[in-house]
Amino acid sequence: MKFNEVSKLVAGIPHTTAEKGKVLYDIIIENKFINCLELGFACGVGASYISAALDENGRGRLTSVDTPAAKTRSPIANDLIKRVGLEAYSEFVFHELGYNWFLMDAIEKGSRFDFCFLDGAHTWDVDALAFTLVSKVLTPRGFIIFDDLDWTYASSPTMKNAPAPELMRKTAGVRKVVDLLVKPHREFEWLGEVAGMGIARRL
Fold it and tell me: What Gene3D superfamilies does the database record attribute to this sequence (predicted)?
């Protein structure tokens, strides 16, 4: 499916913008990724862009993981992906304990992915572990994209009143993961930032 087609179908649905969707779409098209992983899918907009790229390439599979709380979203990701006609490329996993527990199982099973879009908790405690676990299942030359590099509870329109310690409220957790874990990592090459997202490739 062409980018402009999927972009029109998901317009106005949170949270992945068309600008970010274009980055995801182009990277998958250019690198011909096949086994894709998404951690945190909300309404399924990011999954729609990824699945559209797989469809355009003519093959591939996306596994998207979130908690059962994602079933309270409107629209629900399963419904959106059917609406855009790309359900053949996508599987949504509503894991009761979240994506790090899914990754534990993936490591045990020997699963491998060549692309990962990390767009979930955005906190240091969750996503530092997520990156560490993803590094165990990401294939050589595989990409990982970190969304919302500078997101904080304090700056979030929807989460600013959520109860959390002040240090957590003010810390851009994804930025800390990138600066302290990804950039110094000997097995990863930092490729830069675009549209508020960070991109790294496993060597």
Answer: Vaccinia Virus protein VP39
Report DSSP state, residue 88.
Answer: G
Burial of 168 (0-12, 13-18, 19+ CB in 10 A): middle
Q: Which domains does the chain have, with CATH numbers?
A: 3-202 (3.40.50.150)
Give kind and range of the element (H or E) at residue 54. helix 45-57
Q: What are 66's two structure tokens?
A: 């979130």
Residue type, 142: G
Cα atoms in the 13 Å half-sphere on the side-chain side of 16: 31
Provide the 8-state DSSP code for 87: G
In the predicted model, residues of the chain with pLDDT beneath 70 are none
Q: What's the pLDDT score for residue 105?
A: 98
Looking only at the bridges linking them, the beta strands covering 197-202 and 138-146 are antiparallel
pLDDT of 63 reads 98
Task: Kindly report whether the global pTM for this prediction surpasses the value 0.90.
Answer: yes
Query: C-alpha angle 133/41/43, rounded to 5°?
Result: 175
- What's the token pair of residue 109? 């099973």
> For residue 167, how many other CB atoms are within 10 A of its CB?
8
The beta-strand segments (E) located in the chain are 35-39, 61-66, 90-94, 113-118, 138-146, 188-194, 197-202
In three-state secondary structure terms, 34 is coil
